[in-house]
Design a protein that fits this description.
The protein has 588 residues and is an alpha/beta fold. The chain has 21 helices and 19 strands. It folds into three domains: 152 residues, no CATH class; 182 residues, Rossmann fold, CATH 3.40.50; 132 residues, Rossmann fold (3-Layer(aba) Sandwich). The protein has an eight-stranded mixed beta sheet, with helices on both faces. Strands 6-5-7-8-9 form a five-stranded parallel beta sheet, sandwiched between helices. Strands 1-2 form a two-stranded antiparallel ribbon. The relative contact order is 0.10.
Length: 588
């Protein structure tokens, strides 16, 4: 279930937001485990208790299936699905920052321990002399806000229930007004408290005393060239990271290199990183079993990148069901969904190109004169992804009916097929999701006064054929172009400037490199909080803008597609055509 999020955070506060995600590290340093596993709620197994507690925490849904009720501003009842715990405390329960409001952690390991602001202030002041520059800045930030967390005794089940219902800490001090009050019954309260005790309590699978294990997925049909373009830089990153960690530990302990791993404490030092390759063979229908077997033999904390030319769905579903983060896989066929949580994609892939074409057509003034809009595509995973993106976006606004023709896989789009689809003599808009092999048929059918008035195609499918679009078709042919353009800056709308065409291969090296700053950000904040949900809480809060083959990729709360745009371009006249932008990066 996708958590409901609080209103967006002003950009001026994004750094504090990222900083507050690590508040749990400071609050929990040196603490012993919370009050054990706890007993299940009477009549419920422990597994069922935690499942129902998660539903309350993340979705605001009671065990009965009804939405919970929250009370805001003292006496205003609202549906709790709009004020679920996850909105502010995040999936990991390690807190957040919204506007100028600090939201402290809600997991049991912290709630069930006393908090002494004087001790923590002194420790934080010592921390300003240690760590990286980013960590020192974070510590200084905490010092400016430490007064918002006055000393308190450890919570008990009873005082925690009172806090949730009445909005006051164990000392009777009222919480800030934006904190809703939740009038839970005893059973629902017991379920939620048991869930909070388990939240971010034990390190996620894939974490040992010395190592945090990752995997990358490579399917068997990927070429050796693309495989190396991904794996070589990933391996280099792991070696650099581990080398830095070993040097840091050796410097602080005086240990020899071979002793470093043994000396990494489980509760205070970052782990070394290991990366294994999960090879997937055969058709995607068989991948799930292969993934389960890899995971059974050696669980991993998360999947880093990965590459396939096929559908990513089996890997996506495996990650969703096992709560395994999957970071920026290289695929043109991602799962396009509003509910997925555990996979962060570069973009919606082919679907996004189709979506962009539909929105550009919809906003173009009088694109046709009474003619139909016709979409022709091969009945393949690739063709269906393009067509679905166009169809979904076109149908958003109650526009004219869309005529469609799906070609059997392997069927070439001939002149006869295209004329039958568009209706010879009618001035149609043709959305054609095929490669350059269809250009001769287009050239033959669009002459004279009849036929097609506007054509949409994909640079990703045209590849080298992008430059083969004949001059007679260039004025009427619009091309989706999913990557950045040379010598152009983001935000320029309808630029007239011409740019040298770049053939749209998969840009694997640039995508592999884009994962570096994201991993660096994650490792900088992760520290000893080895919880999978916390990993993506960090990404959500970071609002990174990362260099990549795309015009730009950014991250934000709950977003699972880092690239939000795609250009529409045309080819200029002449023997050496250039690309002319016909839209901005984002087409609404």
């Amino acid at each position: 279930m996708t958590p409901r999020r609080a209103p967006s955070v002003p950009r001026s506060l994004l750094v504090p937001l990222a900083a507050l995600l690590c508040l749990a590290t400071l609050l929990s340093a040196g603490l012993s485990p919370a009050a054990g596993e706890g007993a299940s709620v009477p009549g419920l197994s422990r597994a069922e208790t935690l499942r129902l507690g998660e539903r309350i925490y993340r979705g605001g849904i009671l065990s009965s299936g009804e939405p919970l009720t929250a009370v805001v501003q003292g006496d205003i009842p609202v549906e709790g699905t709009m004020f679920s715990c996850v909105s502010c405390h995040l999936r990991s329960g390690l807190g957040s920052f919204e506007g100028d409001i600090l939201t402290p952690p809600t997991n049991g390991d912290i709630l069930y321990q006393p908090w002494d602001s004087h001790i923590e202030t002194a420790r934080l002041r010592r921390g300003t002399m240690e760590g990286t520059s980013k960590q020192r800045k974070r510590t200084l930030f905490y010092l400016t806000r430490i007064g918002e967390f006055p000393s308190r005794p450890a919570y008990t089940d009873e005082t925690l229930a009172d806090a949730i219902r009445e909005g006051a800490d164990p000392e009777g001090r009222d919480f800030i007004g934006v904190m809703p009050r939740y009038p839970f019954g005893d059973r629902e309260m017991a379920i939620l408290i048991e869930y909070l005790k388990s939240l971010s309590k034990d390190p996620s699978p894939g974490v040992t005393d010395t190592t945090i294990r990752f995997a990358t997925v490579v399917s068997g049909e990927v070429s050796r060239k693309e495989r190396d373009e991904l794996l070589v830089p990933l391996d280099r990153y792991v070696r650099i990271y581990n080398g830095h960690l070993r040097r840091k530990t050796r410097k602080s302990t005086g240990a020899r290199a071979e002793e470093v791993v043994r000396l990494l404490p489980a509760d205070s030092e970052p782990r070394l990183v290991s990366l294994v390759v999960w090879e997937l063979q055969g058709s995607p229908e068989t991948w799930r079993g292969q993934l389960e077997e890899y995971y059974r033999k050696e669980p991993v904390f998360a999947l880093l990148s990965g590459i396939t030319t096929k559908e990513w769905r089996p890997v996506h579903e495996f990650c969703e069901e096992n709560a395994i983060p999957s970071l920026l896989p290289i695929t043109d066929l991602p799962v396009v969904s509003e509910t997925g949580w555990y996979t962060l994609y570069f973009s919606k892939g082919y679907y996004q190109e189709g979506e962009t074409a539909a929105r550009h057509l919809a906003r173009t003034e009088a694109p046709v004169s009474g003619g139909p809009v016709v979409q022709v595509y091969p009945d393949t995973p690739e063709g269906n992804a393009f067509a679905s993106g166009f169809r979904d976006a076109w149908n958003e606004g109650g526009r004219a009916p869309l005529l469609e023709k799906a070609l059997p896989a392997g069927t070439q789009a001939t002149r006869e097929i295209l004329e039958e689809a568009t209706g010879k003599g009618r001035r149609s808009v043709l959305v054609l999701w095929t490669g350059a092999e269809a250009i001769p048929a287009l050239n033959a059918m669009t002459g004279g006064d009849g036929g097609v008035s506007t054509i949409y195609m994909s640079a990703t499918l045209l590849k080298e054929g992008l430059l083969a679009v004949p001059e007679a078709l260039r004025d009427k042919t619009y091309i989706t172009y999913p990557y950045g353009l040379t010598d152009t800056g983001p935000g320029m709308m309808y630029a007239k400037k011409k740019v040298t065409p770049q053939i749209t291969d998969r840009r694997v090296p640039g995508k592999a490199a884009a994962i570096y700053p994201v991993l660096t950000e994650i490792f900088s904040w992760l520290e000893s909080n080895y919880f999978r949900d916390y990993m993506f809480d960090i990404v959500d809060a970071s609002m990174l803008v990362v260099a990549s083959p795309f015009e730009r990729i950014t991250f934000g709360p709950g977003q699972r597609y880092a690239s939000k745009g795609c250009y529409i371009v045309q080819l200029s006249k002449g023997e050496r055509p250039e690309l002319v932008r016909k839209s901005g990066w984002v087409v609404h």
